[in-house]
Amino acid sequence: MKWLTHFGLSESPFQKDLADDKLWVPTSRRRLVDDLVEGCHERHHVLLVGEPGVGKTCVLRALRQRLQQDGFRLTYCHNATLGRRDFYRHLCLALGLSPKATAAAVFYAISDHVKQLGEERLHPVFLLDEAHLLHQDVLEHLHILANYEWDQKPLLPLVLVGLPEMRERLTLRKNRSLWSRIHTRLSLGAAEPGDTAEYVSFRLKRAAADHELFSTDALGLIHEVSQGALRDIDRIATACLKLAAKRKLVIDRELVARVQQAEPALDDAE
User: Fold this and answer.
1) pTM for the structure as a whole
2) How far apart are CA 59 and CA 55, in angstroms?
3) pLDDT tens digits along 165-197
4) Residues 129, 77 contacting (CB under 8 angstroms)
5) Minimal CA–CA distance to 256: which of 231, 219, 230, 228?
6) Which CATH number among 3.40.50.300, 3.30.479.30, 3.40.1180.10, 1.10.8.60 corresponds to the domain 25-188?
């Protein structure tokens, strides 16, 4: 692509396919990742909530990378819209077990499986994304998975991830059994302007940029427009690079503003 050659880039810097071990975690988010890791080490149930686009997926990938290095086995589920029976079938398949006919049979199968993993010094963690979409009957039944063995340790530590309304649902009286078992409760706030600048610089360096391509005021406007959402930063920054290369312009605040006004026409700038 001509715009990559123009800037001397080895690859498109803001593409989505990035391995976990090369993942960027902003300085302002590292403490939160540490808290998540600590919660899993203590075998606590965890709740992480945040608005769309604030970086929950980035944080979860960082968590996965850290836990896999520490002997944990993560089971990830992103289909939170299933009914209770299908949800349990999905969980069994994710754990490598044969689906059972009843919830009780599933419970005992999972219990035996978790105990076996413990004997092998592997610690399972069930990570449920988009948890705010859970059907109420599934949510009411999750407390069984979150139950403690003789009040000492959870059968299967849960990491529930979703939008802020997930916290509101859990605090309802009908969900108090599950809520009382969640000891690590975390919120992911909006990104800071420094996070956006750090992210753009990180991605450009990975693509072999030998100098900063975006001015400080350009990064400020990108953050203002995107509100720190990584997907929007990727889109806007790529459009800026294409337009700047096509018209031989510097990437300043004015160019970012022009991109915002003419984004649909920028696909032809490659």
Assistant:
1) 0.78
2) 6
3) 999 999 999 999 899 989 999 999 888 899 999
4) yes
5) 219
6) 3.40.50.300
